[in-house]
Automatic annotation (TrEMBL):
InterPro entries documented for this protein: PASTA_dom (IPR005543)
Highest taxon, organism lineage: Bacteria
Membrane-spanning ranges: 39-59
UniProt lineage: Bacteria, Bacillati, Actinomycetota, Actinomycetes, Kitasatosporales
Keywords from the UniProt entry: Membrane, Transmembrane, Transmembrane helix
Domain PASTA: 61-128, 129-196, 197-263, 264-328
Disordered: region residues: 1-35, 309-328
Organism in which the protein naturally occurs: Streptomyces coelicoflavus
Record's keyword annotation contains Lipid metabolism: no
Protein name: PASTA domain-containing protein
Length: 328
């Protein structure tokens, strides 16, 4: 037992371990040679970039163009321009125009210069020239009806003047300018001449009492208005001092004559002309607003000096009254 192992150790007391054999080393992986980029790869890359850029350009701009300038072109010229631009002609409408010659383009849709897809269509509006109207005959119509007829035809009633007429009743149209049947542009103004009725000679009623004046004017077919104010005149207070229209003037039947009544003559101081020559005396008295009557008698036939006057100098007399001077 003494030669055997003790406690699990060898007899010589030396602890031994078994030797492990290491695996053979893995040979290093050889690096594959990196292929060189040749000219073909560069060309492909460039073409790829160009292709992408071209696609982006086409999406954003390449498929669009602009509507060419077509205004004031004939329809045929406009069609040619659109064809050259790669565009089609859409609807062609016609409209009146006072500024664009007949047969030429007024407008486009889309408008000139607008962006549009190629091969899309552009609509055209072509001028038929100015809209014209044949002037209706409005003579013999009341003014309001004549205006209505003109407006119904697309015309504007223009300036109205009045004239006497023995044939056309007052307030009715005598004629128009331009005359009926004339071709004019729509919207043109048409002047009208309207009757004032038959003319009436205005009688002279100055110096009359108001009631007498009214009766005379009414007999002539005229109306009367009495003015609020009164004026000094040669006529007595309350008599007609003046009238409008003036006596002898012409008025239409039914027109109104305005009468202004007198508040009596204005009292004026009479110049002293005794001792003056006849010419000087007359000038002074007339300048003051008086009429002059000369009394020469037998003794004053060849005289030239004022001996006396009917109203003494310094006194007052009605304006327009007569002062008599005695000459010796």
């Amino acid at each position: 037992e003494g030669d055997g192992a003790h406690g699990g150790f060898p007899a010589d007391g030396v602890h031994r371990t078994s030797r492990l054999t290491a695996p053979p080393p893995v040979p290093p992986r050889s690096r594959l040679p990196r292929p060189r980029r040749g000219p073909l790869a560069i060309v492909v890359a460039v073409l790829l970039v160009l292709g992408v850029g071209t696609g982006v350009w086409y999406i954003n701009s390449g498929q669009f163009t602009k509507v060419p300038p077509l205004l004031s072109k004939t329809e045929a010229q406009a069609r040619d321009r659109l064809d050259e631009a790669g565009l089609d002609v859409g609807k062609v409408k016609h409209a009146y125009s006072d500024t664009v010659e007949r047969g030429k383009v007024i407008s486009t849709d889309p408008g000139v210069g607008d962006r549009i897809r190629k091969n899309d269509s552009v609509s055209l509006t072509v001028s038929d020239g100015p809209d014209t109207v044949k002037l209706p005959d409005v003579s013999g119509y009341r003014l309001d009806k004549a205006r209505e007829l003109l407006e119904d035809e697309g015309l504007e009633p223009g300036m109205v003047t009045k004239a006497f007429s023995g044939e056309v009743a007052k307030g009715f149209v005598i004629s128009s300018k331009p005359g009926s049947g004339t071709t004019v542009r729509a919207g043109s103004a048409v002047a009208l001449v309207v009757s004032k009725g038959s003319p009436v000679d205005v009688p002279d009623v100055t110096g009359d009492d108001p009631e007498d004046a009214k009766a005379e004017l009414a007999e002539a077919g005229l109306k009367v208005r009495i003015a609020d104010e009164r004026v000094n005149s040669e006529y007595d207070s309350g008599q007609v001092a003046r009238q409008t229209p003036d006596p002898g003037g012409r008025a239409a039947e039914g027109d109104t004559v305005t009468l202004t009544l007198s508040k009596g003559p204005r009292m004026i101081e009479v110049p002293d002309v005794v001792g003056d020559s006849v010419d000087d005396a007359k000038r002074k008295l007339e300048d003051a607003g008086f009429n002059v009557d000369e009394d020469r008698g037998l003794l004053g036939l060849f005289g030239d000096t004022v001996e006396k006057q009917s109203v003494d100098g310094g006194d007052t007399a009605p304006e327009g009254s007569t002062i008599k001077i005695t000459i010796r």
